[in-house]
Amino acid sequence: KAGVTQTPRYLIKTRGQQVTLSCSPISGHRSVSWYQQTPGQGLQFLFEYFSETQRNKGNFPGRFSGRQFSNSRSEMNVSTLELGDSALYLCASGLERVEFFGPGTRLTVL
Amino acid sequence: AQTVTQSQPEMSVQEAETVTLSCTYDTSESDYYLFWYKQPPSRQMILVIRQEAYKQQNATENRFSVNFQKAAKSFSLKISDSQLGDAAMYFCARSRDDKIIFGKGTRLHILP
């Protein structure tokens, strides 16, 4: 079974731009979560989707949004990028609750 | 706040020896999952071992085993016969409301 995949793996943007990250969960998994990892804050929960519905949301500004499609693939969008948004963004999937992580997307904001 | 605490920011162990990483957590729930994840320099987060809180038996995966003390809210990871490939950041984590709460991590060095 293929693991969780994330695209792109690396991304460089400038302040004020917006970005969309994509996550394909393990086949059959309906739960998808997103996490932000930075050296200072560690791993922080962004949001979680189950069967196209957002079940849980972390303490991030409205610039961070996400969605899940009927095939369980998920996207997260960050608008009006700030320097502090530079991080590794990890996606995770699971059957009922997430457990397995993708390789991450490294976002650098200049 | 319901948190996960890893009190050892860094640890070192000699190759082939055994090492134990500590983790304590806080929760008011009776049913939850506990995890240990490994994050090597590649940054891929790898699930090492999972424990369901309602199961008293400690989980084991090859050289990795846990000591789960529910009353004490303790969940330590024991790595036996340490190998160079075990060098990584190890995160203890707990499920809560369909999300995972992570500790700050323990960086494990393997000494040849």
Topology:
The complex is a heterodimer of chains A (110) and B (112).
Chain A: E1 5-7, E2 10-13, E3 19-24, E4 31-38, E5 42-50, E6 53-57, E7 64-68, E8 74-78, E9 87-94, E10 100-101, E11 105-109
Parallel strand pairs in A: 2-11
Antiparallel strand pairs in A: 1-3, 3-8, 4-5, 4-9, 5-6, 7-8, 9-10, 9-11
Chain B: E1 4-5, E2 10-14, E3 19-21, E4 24-25, E5 33-39, E6 46-52, E7 60-61, E8 64-69, E9 74-79, E10 88-96, E11 99-102, E12 106-111
Parallel strand pairs in B: 2-12
Antiparallel strand pairs in B: 1-4, 3-9, 5-6, 5-10, 7-8, 8-9, 10-11, 10-12
The SSE string of chain B, one letter per element, is EEEEEEEEEEEE
Distance between the termini of chain A: 37 Å
Mean pLDDT of chain B equals: 93
Report the helical percentage of chain A. under 10%
How far apart the termini of chain B lie comes to 40 Å
User: Class by helix and strand content of chain B?
Assistant: mainly beta
- The 3D shape of chain B can be described as globular
Sheet-strand content of chain B, in percent, reads over 45%
Specify the biggest β-sheet of chain A.
7 strands, mixed
The number of helices of chain A is 0
Supply Rg of chain A. 13 Å
Number of strands of chain A: 11
Mean pLDDT of chain A: 94
Oligomer: heterodimer
What low-confidence regions of chain A span 5 or more consecutive residues with pLDDT below 50?
none
Beta-strand fraction estimate of chain A = over 45%
Q: Summarize the helix and strand pattern of chain A as letters.
A: EEEEEEEEEEE
Tell me the number of helical segments of chain B per DSSP (H or I, 4 or more residues long): 0
**Radius of gyration of chain B, Cα only, in angstroms?**
13 Å
